[in-house]
Amino acid sequence: MCQLLGMNCNVPTDICFSFTGFRQRGGGTDHHSDGWGIAFFEGRGVRMFLDPAPSAQSQIAELVRSYPIKSLNVVAHIRKSTLGPTSLENTHPFMREMWGRYWIFAHNGHLPQFRPDLDGSFTPVGNTDSELIFCWYMQELKHKFGATPPTREALFEAVHALTMLLAPTGIFNFLLSNGSCLFAHCSTELAYIIRRAPFCQAHLTDEDVTVDFAQVTTPNDRVAVIATQPLTDNERWETMAPGTLWQFHEGEPVANRATAASPYKSMAECG
User: Fold this and answer.
1) Which of 126, 147, 171, 223 sits a CA distance of 20 to 30 A from 190?
2) Residue 271: is its pLDDT beyond 90?
């Protein structure tokens, strides 16, 4: 299965440490080698890097790892293809504009029976079910709220209602952000950690790298990191229950609600 990584903070923060370990899962410590991508929200803009090459060997990934881009919301993805060839247009995350904001989506899973009717307002460029799902979400949210952006609370309710329709039909782990907050749906596997004062040292699982966060943060910083599997081996990560939707804002979970756990345990069962 693909690998997801998200970050939501109360102050602009770089993701260099987490990404250093995460990128190794794309052909280094794991076999996910069908491309990778990362998107950083900066104000109302988005800085995005995509590469259909394995992240562990990607020169673009090395640039991202060494370049401290600071952001309030980050979404990253390492692909293990199930539908659609390995190509740039099929590389996550995907981006669309709505209500004067960019939206970013990355998906880990497979919904083999999902065949929605699209009205043309949001159209896939590639041929993954993930981009199709994203376009459908954007379309349905636009239908519900029209030209008026909803409150964060109303948006959570709407995303939850849409997720309830799809969650029982396949494997559906995803990250979705509009730059203000970050949604995370655990269908089979996701975990998160909240880093806040007092900060301590953290050691990566996929690389022998340690950072002392007390040396690079302020006492007011708060950072939520979400990943398919924990990225460090000396911190306590919280495992999300399968079949739950979460909303993160300013570096902490502000809402969560049950959806439906996947009826499948593996991608092979999904067909």
Assistant:
1) 126
2) no
What are the pLDDT digits (tens) for 62-109?
999 888 899 999 999 997 666 656 778 899 899 999 999 999 999 999
Q: Of the candidates 254, 262, 255, 199, which has an alpha carbon nearest to the alpha carbon of residue 232?
A: 199
Whichever domain contains 258, its CATH number is 3.60.20.10
Torsion region of 116: left, alpha or beta (phi above 0 gives left; psi -120 to 50 gives alpha) = beta
CA 166 to chain centre: 17
Task: Tell me the H-state helices in the chain.
Answer: 16-22, 59-66, 129-145, 152-166, 267-270
Q: Which helix (H) or strand (E) holds 96?
A: strand 94-98
Whole-prediction pTM value? 0.94
Q: Residue 179 is part of which domain span? A: 3-270
Structure tokens at 2: 């693909």
- Find all residues with CB under 8 Å of 132, minimum gap 6, and list them: 114, 116, 118, 124
Mean pLDDT for the stretch of residues 185-190: 96
Enter the DSSP assignment of 83. Answer: S
Total domains, the chain: 1
Distance CA 152, CA 155 (A): 5
Residue 85 per-residue DSSP state: -
